[in-house]
Amino acid sequence: MKLRDFLIGVATGLAAAVIIKEASEKVSPYVPAGQVLEKIKKEFKKDAPIDGSWIYMKTDNFTNGFMTIPVYRGGISRMNEGEMQTFEFAADARSGVVVELTEV
Asked: How far apart are the C-alpha atoms of 28 and 36, rounded to whole Å?
C-alpha cells in the first residue's frame, strides 16, 4: 500500500467523523442531562456542600398552564446548618434553565 493511499484514507475517515458529529448534534436539540445537572450542582455549591444528586436522562413534559416544554427532572440533597435539605427540580431540556424548584 502506498503512503499516499493511506493518507487519503485517514483524511476521508476524519472528514466523515466530523460530518457525523455535526449531524448528530443537530438531530438532538437537547442539552445533555449530565451537563444540566453539573450546572445546577455548581449553583447549589455556592450555598452549601452537596451530599447527593440525581437526574433522569429521558425528558418529561412540563406544563405551566400556558405551554408544554420538555424538561429533565432531578434532585439534589445537601446539609445546611445541620439539617438535610432535599430539592427536586425540572430543567428545560433545550437550555438547561431551571423552570421548577421545590423543597421536599
From this structure: 15
Sign of the C-alpha dihedral, residues 43, 51, 86, 34?
positive
Q: Count of alpha carbons within 13 Å of 75, Cβ hemisphere only?
A: 11
Instruction: Tell me how far CA of residue 99 lies from CA of 36, 78, 92, 94, in angstroms.
Output: 12, 20, 6, 12
Alpha-carbon distances of 63 from 42, 47, 75, 100, 102, rounded to whole Å:
26, 29, 19, 10, 15
- With beta carbons less than 8 A apart as the criterion, state whether 88 and 73 touch: yes
Q: Read off the C-alpha cell for 25.
A: 448534534
**CA 65/CA 24 separation, integer angstroms:** 32
Question: Tens digit of pLDDT for each residue in 10-66?
Answer: 889 888 888 887 776 666 688 899 999 999 999 999 888 899 999 999 999 999 888
